[in-house]
Prior knowledge:
Strand order of the largest sheet: 5-6-4-2-7-11-10
Radius of gyration: 19 Å
Helix content: 25-40%
Number of strands: 11
Shape: globular
Amino acid sequence: MPTPPPTGPVVTRDSLAAQLRELGVRPGETLLVHSSLSSMGWVDGGPVTVVRALLDALGPDGTLVVPTQSGDLTDPALWRHPPVPEEWWETIRATMPVYDPATTPTRGVGVIPETVRTWPGARRSGHPHTSFAALGPSAAQIVAGHAADCRLGERSPLAKLERLGARVLLLGVGYDSCTAFHLAEYRIPAPLVEVGRPGPKGWEVVTEVSITSERFDELGHDFERDRPVVRGTTGAAGARLFPLAGAVAYAQRWLSTHRPREEEFLNPPV
């Protein structure tokens, strides 16, 4: 059977930049973007066009930030999509490449963050699992000092984005992709977890705050109901724009009430 023609609308750099401005993206601001290219329609130029349009809307004084996570640099015993045979685990741990901000690819966050990561002048933070990449005048400040034992907490770019008054843009994705909510998890009681990864001296295990996106969709629904969130479209994708600090503060209260995790301290998983 012949391949069906692509569905629209046709999205160009100029049309996307215009929609971003109409949504309320401001020149000179700092913007944390979570995105799905496939949700936007037929984008002429693919992810490069999206990045250029975002930079156009932000202008030369604005800073674009994206998550550039690398969840494949983790313990193979925990892999589920797909799993690998147990007899491979030790070999994988012993030979897994160490995280390198310049060369380690992203995984699971889409093609737009990978495009930002490789963009000329991009800066990337140092956490081997939950890094962020940034383009613009504040990029180096935002990504510097990302502690190796703090995925998404006070010593991560999220806390710096909060202090800088950044906003969050969800571009064709839901609230389950909103990393800002994880910063709230560090500010309420949460269990700790041991995390394995390759290190400069071989396989290492560090202690981190346990984080999960469970019920973030419900949290986002209530946040949007109770707080001002700008909604619009970019191509075929729905878009949401809101202050990061407001989302973190709301999530801190909501999670304490609706998703307390104290029982995990009393009944740790076997």
